[in-house]
Amino acid sequence: MLLELENVTLQYGRIQALHGISLTVDEGEIVALIGANGAGKSTTMRAISGLRPVASGSIRFNGEDITRLRADLRVVRGVCQAPEGRGIFPGMTVLENLDMGAYTRKDRNGIAADLERVLTLFPRLKERAKQLGGTLSGGEQQMLAIGRALMSRPKLLLLDEPSMGLAPMLIQKIFEIITEINQQGTTILLVEQNAQQALSRAHRGYVLETGNIVRSGTGAELLHDPAVKEAYLGVA
Q: What Pfam family is a match, any one (predicted)?
């Protein structure tokens, strides 16, 4: 088991955002976390990446308890996030943004190989290598955010709303690339409002409602679950 959350609670001031959630991600999987706005999906991601301290419960990664570990040290261990809203550096070029993704690494040959891999996955980024991040389209910025995360060579890639604000054709493309990244050996935890795309690509999934996990199963099981279909797929 690569990642395990056990009874994790998290608070923003007096507001409890997560109510004792437990989930697992096995090596090689794509696991989807779906739910409405405000359900606690991004909060779960911040807890895993160390951007928000948990109030109680534990987070284990690759056999190690990382519940209290600093966020930067989690990146070194192999946990890396492409955040909601992309969070690229607008005043830096595409190549400089990608280089920032490898800031914890010293292996120059490995970094060069991973840069080549990212530019092969995202040919648009290769075409715009010297362009400033802030001048890219929304879809290109999303590709850059994922590419930058891959430059840390993560064991677990956290993707927070990768399809947000993208045109349907680009959404399809982003999800094809996510599948390809997984097939190349990277484990993925995916937070996504586009439940149809997420569950059709995921090996397993969890449904979050107001900080509680209310359903779990294989991607196919959740896709065909009547309650999930009604709530998240627009099918009565």
A: ABC_tran
Number of domains in the chain: 1
Annotate the chain with three-state secondary structure.
CCEEEEEEEEEECCEEEEEEEEEEECCCCEEEEECCCCCCHHHHHHHHHCCCCCCEEEEEECCEECCCCCHHHHHHHCEEEECCCCCCCCCCEHHHHHHHHCCCCCCHHHHHHHHHHHHHHCHHHHHCCCCEHHHCCHHHHHHHHHHHHHCCCCCEEEEECCCCCCCHHHHHHHHHHHHHHHHCCCEEEEECCCHHHHHHHCCEEEEEECCEEEEEEEHHHHHCCHHHHHHHCCCC
- Give a yes or no: residue 10 inside a domain: no
Structural domain includes residue 178: yes
- Full residue range of the structural domain in which residue 31 is found: 26-50+73-232
| CATH code, domain carrying 128 | 3.40.50.300
CB 70 within 8 A of CB 50: yes
In a domain, 150, yes or no: yes
pLDDT tens digits, one per residue of 117-174: 999 999 999 999 999 999 999 999 999 999 999 999 999 999 999 998 888 888 999 9
pLDDT tens digits, one per residue of 106-122: 999 999 999 999 999 99
